[in-house]
């Protein structure tokens, strides 16, 4: 009788441990999913920022280089374009900050 009670208590303890481990696994799985979603979101932000810089700032810099090589670009116009590039890069890189 005592042996059966001890076996029952041992079984209950083992089941409690298994349930606890399953809860831990479930919690870790939820954390993993949340981390994967956050990583995917960050990758989308980086890709969008890269595209914005490429389609804006880099295109303008390419234009300025070509203009300087082929024509004499007035200093004020050059400064205006460079300021625009600076503002564009600044605005895009602020999206990368957490």
Q: Please, could you describe this protein's structure?
A:
The chain has helices at residues 2-70, 75-94. It has 98 residues and is mostly helical. The protein has one domain (2-94). It starts with a helix and ends with a helix. The model has no long low-confidence stretch (mean pLDDT 88).
Quick overview of this protein structure:
This is Histidine kinase. The protein is mainly alpha-helical.
What attributes does this structure have?
98 residues; mainly alpha; Histidine kinase
Topology of helices and strands:
Elements: H1 2-70, H2 75-94
Helix pairs in contact: 1-2
Shape: rod-shaped
Q: Roughly how many Å apart are the termini?
A: 63 Å
- DSSP helix count? 2
Overall strand count:
0
The pLDDT mean sits at 88
Tell me about the biggest sheet?
A: none
Bin the helical content: over 70%
**Proportion of β residues?**
under 5%
Low-confidence parts, pLDDT < 50 over ≥5 residues?
none
Task: Indicate how many domains the architecture comprises.
Answer: 1
What is the helix/strand order?
Answer: HH
Which radius of gyration do the C-alpha atoms yield? 30 Å
**What oligomeric state do the depicted chains represent?**
single chain
Structural class: mainly alpha
């Amino acid at each position: 009788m005592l042996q059966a009670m001890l076996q029952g208590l041992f079984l209950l303890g083992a089941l409690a441990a298994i349930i606890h481990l399953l809860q831990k696994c479930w919690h870790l799985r939820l954390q993993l999913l949340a981390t994967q979603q956050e990583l995917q979101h960050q990758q989308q932000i980086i890709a969008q920022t890269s595209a914005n810089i490429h389609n804006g700032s880099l295109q303008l810099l390419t234009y300025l280089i070509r203009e300087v090589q082929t024509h004499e670009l007035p200093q004020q116009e050059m400064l205006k374009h460079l300021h625009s590039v600076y503002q564009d890069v600044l605005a895009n890189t602020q999206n990368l900050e957490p």
